[in-house]
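Lab meeting, action items carried over

1. Structure of the two-component assembly. Owner: GW. Status: complete.
Input record:
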Amino acid sequence: MIGVIYTFAAVFMLSAILLFVFHKLFKLTIPAYIIAGLIGGIFLTEEGLLELLQWGIAFVVFIFGAKLEPGKLKHGIGGSLLSTGAQITGLGLGFFGALYLAGFGTLNSIYISAALVFSSSLTGTELSEKYATIELLYGRLAEATDVIHDILAIVLILLLSPVLFSVGIGYALAVGGGMLVLSLAFRRFLFPWLFELSDHSEELMLLSGISLLAVMIAISQLAGISIVVGAFFAGLAFSRFPYNIELVESMESLKDFFAAVFFFSLGALVTVPDAATLGIALLIILVTVFVKPLLTAISLMHYGYDKRTAYRCALTLDQVSEFVLIIAVQAYLISAIAAPVFQGIILATTVTMITTSYTDRYSDKIQNIIADRLPFETPEKIKRYHTRINTNLKDHVIIVGYDVQGSRLGDFLKEKGEEFVVIELNPEMLEEADGLENCVFKSAMDNESWEKANYKDAKLIISTPPQKHVSEKILSLDTDARKVVRSNSFNIARKLIEGGADYVMVPDLLASEQLIDYVEEAIYGDKETVKRMRGEMLGKLKRNIDDFEK
Amino acid sequence: MFDIAITEGLFITWDFVLLITVATVLGYIAHKTYQPNLIAYLITGLVLGPVFLNIVQETALLELMSELGLAFLLFLLGLQLKFDAIKNILKPILKISFWQTVLQTSLAFVIYYFLGFAMVEVIVMALCTVFGATPVIVKLLDEKDEITSLPGKIDVGVLIVQDIILVVYLTLFSAPDLTNPVPIAINFFQVMGVMAVLGVFSYAVSRWMVPKVVREVGKNKHLLFINGAAWAFLFIGVSLALDVPVEVGAFIAGLGLAQSPYSDELKQQVKPLTDFFMMVFFATIGLGLAPEYLTVYWKEAIIASSLLMVGNFIIMLYLIDREKFSPETSFLGSINMVQVSEFSLVVGALTVSRGLVGNEILGYLSLMAIMTMGISAYIIKYNHEIYDRVKHLFEFMESEEKGDVDIKILEDHAIIVGYNEITRRLVPVLKERYGDVVVIDKNPEYVEMLRESGAEFVFGDLKHEEMRRSIGLKRANVIVSMAMEDAVNRRVLSDKKEDAITFLRAKDRDDAAGLYDLGADFVIIKRLLSAEKMTEYIESFLEDPETFDEAVEGDKQIIDWEARL
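Predicted assembly:
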């Protein structure tokens, strides 16, 4: 027992140090653990750790299930399905065939191809950018793709049951289906009841969660299929439940503990890589970083998405999923796949997670570069949006970007009967703007956009994207029009004012001023004031929803 | 590199599945009958172990988890001990704790002696059974929102001192040779020396280094948690290496961190893991007991429990009263404390493993823990009602010179959830109107900044019920929440007092509509807010560009000023 405690001490201290470093450099956790494990594996014994490996799998997959939001499929499911289809046929089946012919054997080939297809939703959400852009089209596409990948991974595990656990495929699918039903029934009937019964007690919710997890895993073991399936459906039983925060919160701290042990152990399972391991790792890395994004982007373009959206979305999918690690370690532990394959997958996952933090950080630039250089275009006949100018634009307002801010201003100008034109590149935003008389469907960085918008005769240009290069482009325009641009940073805002902007919208400042107006009115007013204000705000919101649904 | 040697023992076993499901079911029953969960866990072990069904064995895995459970329990205990919280009643608390330990140990000693136990047993049991159960008292009082009341504070203060004494007992009983007083003494002083060094180290690090680290990692709770665990394991490892009980190391690790303002959030992170391991720990105690161990001393357990509950109540009442608190405070403070600590089982298990006493003593201690905790749970639940019934009996204690110290309770205050550019400017506005402003945020960077502005800053996450209570959500007059998580805002709405004004932020229109349905006064969508202000400006531009220039002049100055900061 004493040895175990020392091992744990080493695991957590090493992990904490590497996490700290990785957080500063990449904002990533999983690669930090794996590398901590690589180091720790040199001098530690596995006592106690491998015993908890399964717990790591159980909790990580549980959280996976609990965070799955099928609702994310609402937007962009068509494109995501098409691109996933392309990934499966192009990368999955293609490489499976090639590897199989090259003599890798069925299972080894399947696992390597799986590493090529699946990308990670956990790593994705860990990188801050993704959260911030959830409202943008490419973000939604990427999220829908993540959900599809997660579901497919479970299906793959079920399909692999015959080879891994020697049970019939129909049987495995039936067990999986049964568990899904059980999970949905629990979610629909038992959990709400338990939640009330426990008076929302965090400790009881935690116990209920672990119980369900344990029972589902026991069922998987009894049925002879992978415990991943049970853990996933246990998590699914709690997903998107409106009151699941307590549960997910507390399960998450258990997950953090066991996941640290899990990923650390994975790293510790890696030896000094030989040529075969390196070769496999390199193959996965190259395909994931270069081929997969390109394939994804092209397939999205052929669904009709604009090329920038397509590249941007593709750039969020350029890493190997930790799910692949989970299924690979299971296969490795029962000696179903070869050591170089397993280790190659671990190395490739670690490396691609690190590279993805860079492509995420610089995705704006990368997307601009490749969109300009690569010869792929959205085919003209399925392009969904076109530039239209219906009035003779004079003394007008130009709005750049038609997101919430832009469309509010547009509505207001419409109300006032002002003439205006919108420059917007994001097709989804234009979908909302169907009723617009004038819009230029082209990048604001493009001079042609400005010519079309007749910028010389405009009286006001309002730019709503926060990117500095857009603002600078506008300030460089030679026109008498007043220029209002936007920035999220006070520093840049100040520079832009010095550079000639008539005003810089800093959303935090604007929002805070408006909020203070409201708060002051409410806290010094009486009950009636609050009631009246509430009615007004509700009215505005309703109008907004109507706009949205129109 | 690790070898892969997979054995059956690896898998999540039926033993575990049974243990957790039974514990869950009993947990719900305990909850519905107002009993602490600890009792449910102990009984789980008894039901599944040799006492009743005998279908679950202690496996290596359970053993590992219960070992970790004990270490984390002590770490969490240390994390909860904030000296700041009892600063203004420190003197009376030290006096009460000292005399309480002396008097109650003597009482227990006499009772056990007359019940006919052997001398070693008498000593072990007397030391074990005089202390109150921190998890039971803290949890129940917290649920009743009485933890910050004066009796609650006195209890917590006394418990802090008791816990420290218990850690000393743990070290005493783990001395290598317990028959000879000289090595015990040597061991004791060695351990005390190590504890002192570790304590100073822990305090120094948490004072000087922790703020820096937390500022880096605090925003990411995953990192905060792993760093916390690493910190605990560091002390556990050092204790092992120096031959000090690991529990002591864990306790000191927690104690050092507790004094930093960041401990609350870490505590919330560590708690679920500890709850889980602790469940295994207490169930394992039940599993280890054979039926005969329980039946040997059941009569003695009943007699001693009743005598000690009454005796301890009288002793505490006398001691608190002596410090000139009001009779009500003395009564409540002492009646909350009549149960036996869960540590009696920890120390008991240790003495059994050291061969000092037999398993039947552990059985006896378990019975006593179950009985006293069970009864005291009801006593704490109905403490005010009991007092109202028997108030007249304590009239003789009333006197002019007695009275309670004032404790500040947050009331009619303003709460800001999430400190950022938007809410920062709100602090002075709310402060002027309500006086007290509490800001809670998951980002630790603002501690210093807010200290200057006069608002109280709490580092933490409103998802935790304890956090919601500690900022007095139920008593606030206005709540401005910038939390993007819908569930947090829903909790605000369900917990707030009826006429509190709420400004809640939603990430999209769906969430906003949902919050209005639940009764939110104002739902903020940041982009709409800024768009509204901007529309105002554009309107002025359309009327006259000059007015626009004037309107935005102020903003330009703010931008200039902020950029220079």
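2. GW to write a short summary for the group page. Key points so far: The CA atoms of residues 102 and 178 of chain A lie 38 Å apart. Strands of chain A lie at 397-400, 420-423, 439-440, 460-463, 482-486, 503-505.
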